[in-house]
Structure formats: C-alpha cells, structure tokens
Amino acid sequence: MRFLLAGLVFGFVLTRAEVISWFRIQEMFRFQSFHMYGVIASALVVAGVALEIIKRRRVRALDGTPIQLAPKEVGRGYRYIIGGAIFGVGWAFTGACPGPLFALLGSGLAVMIVPIASALAGTWLYGYLRPWLPH
What is the average per-residue pLDDT within 106-132? Predict the structure, then answer.
C-alpha cells in the first residue's frame, strides 16, 4: 500500500511540475526553455547529496544490511553513445521518458500504452540478448 501511495505522490508531483508535459519536453529538445534542464539538474544535485550522505553515514537498509554502492567500471564509449541515442530518440518521439509514462497514462493519455508496451518489450529483449552483449 505504501508503494502505491508513493507512486501516486510521485505521479502527482511530476504532473504538477509539468515534467510529463509533451510541450515541455519538446521545448527542451529544441533548446527553447530551461525548465526541463533545471529539473534534471536539480535531480542530479539531490541524488549526489543523497549518495554522499549514504556513504558518509554508512546508512543501512530497512532490514539492517549496509547499503553499498558497487564501483562503476567505465567501458568503451560506443555503448553509451548507442544506448543514449536509442533512449533519446525514443524520448523525442514519444515526448516522455520512462519515469512519467504511467503518470501520463493515469492522466488520461491512453496512447501511452504504446510506449509502455515498447519499453517492456525492449527490456525483455535486452534481458534475452544480455548474454551475447558486451558488458
């Protein structure tokens, strides 16, 4: 129940902040407005501060296990470029990144079923092909 409530609050905040607005996203991709860049920059700052607090205070999960962040290994640039391009093209076509897809659906845009189904199919395809992909 608490996760449903958290999802409803998250969707409400995304909607009120106009983060799910197709027009706001198009403004961002056309460099016509700072709104979305400001939201993304704010999220990066909050995430960075939260991660630093987790590291310094050695925060534990609800079950008592320590939260540990695995070190990231920087790979070859082409996989980031290809993955980022696929994500960006999908974002530009649909006007929505994966986060607000369900908020858009909940706000009455039934057409968002198509990107949700596509995201699920892409996730399934990645899981299927993962053993053969370079990691």
Answer: 89
